[in-house]
Write a structure and sequence with these properties.
The chain is of the alpha/beta class. The protein folds into two domains: 132 residues, Rossmann fold (3-Layer(aba) Sandwich); 168 residues, Dihydrodipicolinate Reductase, domain 2, CATH 3.30.360. Helices cover 29% and strands 19% of the residues.
């Protein structure tokens, strides 16, 4: 499977859609042939995103599954949860390989999705729109599920907070070095994680001079996704891991920093074993860099790239392990990871379209 593929982007008018365009324009084996978005239909893409002038002037169309199937081999769905599932179902019914960047297929259990994503303002809970596809969907974190991704027809691209958290901690759980009990995830995100739709909380005068926690005490929707994947890494039953997850909004456009606190299963081990476990797990990985002893991840050092910087440190006084990861939420936390998954699906080198160095400063 080495031929050039035609690509559709559904939901092209948001930040993730824009990032998909940027990355795929530099991909030697992908050609963007269709861009679709509900609110921007009828406009040209370079009118919605002037930074694409002279690069991509395709007309933005309203979604039509038959059009996608006729003009594209692969579709990226960058849509809100709930809305995405029906689009994905229509595309899969027509045999289109689909990479979904919403949360609609990340959770294995339809009832869990209903609990976390199906609620409405009146307290009602909607059923999952396409539960029959959950078993087909592969969780799109290549560093953890590469074999399952090869040749996949439907990929659930992970959330940004889960990506950073899982990359930081999963190898330590898999190696039995830390307990799956009592995990604390303290994470920070740039404002682009909230999407492009204007909101008071991310309005510059409201957000620029402060740092705030939000959706605390088990109310953030990424919580069950984190718990699902960490339970899998630890080899314990689904639902056996419960994390304290506290996300924060930082006054910056991009970036995720996840700090995970865990209890060692044997406090007598040398402090070096935790970083060594990360180094062993990510040896040969093209996008995960285990930092040298004493160096700490910084979102500024991965900005604009598909890279992840990780570190693990043992605090002997508190008898706690600190695992840290920094990623760009729009790249490794969304669009870049989706492109990486496409490369795995097609059997291409994973770095195609993703080899650019981080932007600094």
């Amino acid at each position: 499977m080495s031929d050039r593929v035609r690509v559709a982007i559904v939901g092209a008018s948001g930040y993730t859609g824009a990032e998909l365009c940027r990355l795929l324009l530099g991909h030697p084996r992908a050609e963007i042939t269709v861009v679709m978005a509900k609110r921007a239909a009828g406009q040209r893409l370079d009118e919605v995103f002037p930074h694409l002038r002279g690069l991509l002037a395709l007309p933005i169309e309203a979604f039509d599954a038959d059009t996608v199937a006729a003009r594209a081999d692969v579709a990226f769905a960058a849509l809100p949860h709930g809305e995405s599932a029906t689009v994905v179902a229509a595309l899969r019914a027509r045999g289109v390989t689909t990479l979904d960047l919403s949360a609609d297929f990340r959770l294995h259990d339809a009832a869990t999705w209903t609990t976390w994503y199906g609620s409405s303002a009146d307290g009602e809970h909607a059923a999952h729109p396409a539960p029959g596809l959950l078993a087909e969907a592969v969780y799109g974190l290549p560093e953890r599920h590469r074999d399952a991704l090869r040749g996949a027809g439907l990929v659930a691209v992970p959330g940004c907070y889960p990506t950073a958290t899982i990359l930081a901690l999963a190898p330590l759980l898999a190696a039995g070095l830390v307990s799956p009990d009592g995990l604390v995830v303290d994470a920070k995100s740039g404002a682009s994680g909230a999407g492009r739709t204007p909101a008071l909380a991310t309005h510059l005068p409201e957000a620029a001079e402060g740092v705030r926690a939000y959706k605390v005490a088990g109310t953030h929707r990424h919580t069950p996704e984190i718990e699902q994947e960490l339970a899998l890494a630890a080899g314990v039953a689904p639902g056996a891991v419960a994390v304290v997850f506290t996300p924060h909004l930082l006054p910056m456009a991009r970036g995720i920093l996840s700090c995970v606190y865990a209890t060692p299963t044997d406090a007598s081990r040398p402090a070096s074993v935790y970083r060594d476990a990360l180094a062993a797990a990510y040896a040969g990985e093209p996008f995960v860099d285990v930092l040298p002893v004493g160096a700490l991840p910084d979102t500024a050092h991965v900005r604009g790239s598909n890279r992840a910087h990780v570190q693990a440190i043992y605090d002997p006084r508190a008898r706690r392990v600190l695992a840290i990861a920094a990623i760009d939420n729009l790249v490794k936390g969304a669009a870049g990871q989706a492109v990486q998954c496409l490369n795995v699906i097609r059997g291409w080198p994973e770095t195609l379209g993703l080899a650019a160095a981080p932007m600094f400063p």
